[in-house]
Write a structure and sequence with these properties.
Elements (H helix, E strand, L loop, with lengths): L1 H16 L2 H5 L5 E2 L5 H7 L5 H14 L16 H7 L3 E2 L2
Parallel strand pairs: 1-2
Length: 92
C-alpha cells in the first residue's frame, strides 16, 4: 500500500511539473507589434479573444505601438489589466 501511494504521489508530481499552468510563468514576453490576436489572447492573462482582436485593430490603425501604455486605449483594458500583463509584453 505504501508503494502504491508513493507511486501515485510521484505520478501526480510529474503531471504537475509538465502541466501548461506551470509553464505559463516561464513563457517569454510577447511582442504586441507582431503577435496575432490568438497569440495575444493565449499569452496575456485576462485578455481574451475580443480584447486581443481590439489590440490588433488599434495596432493596425496606429501603425504599431510605441508605448505599452497605449493599450489603455483598448476597450476593456484598464490600468489593473495593464499592470498585470506589462511584464509579459515587449515592443519591437
Amino acid at each position: 500500500m505504501k508503494t502504491y501511494r508513493r507511486l501515485l504521489v510521484l505520478l501526480f508530481a510529474t503531471v504537475l511539473a509538465f502541466s501548461p499552468i506551470t509553464r505559463a510563468a516561464d513563457a517569454l514576453p510577447i511582442n504586441i507589434n507582431t503577435a496575432t490576436a490568438s497569440q495575444l489572447a493565449e499569452a496575456l492573462d485576462g485578455v481574451g479573444a475580443v480584447r486581443a482582436a481590439a489590440m490588433v485593430l488599434l495596432r493596425d490603425q496606429m501603425g504599431g505601438f510605441t508605448s505599452v501604455d497605449q493599450l489603455l486605449n483598448v476597450s476593456g483594458i484598464g490600468s489593473a489589466t495593464l499592470e498585470r500583463i506589462r511584464a509579459s509584453i515587449v515592443l519591437e
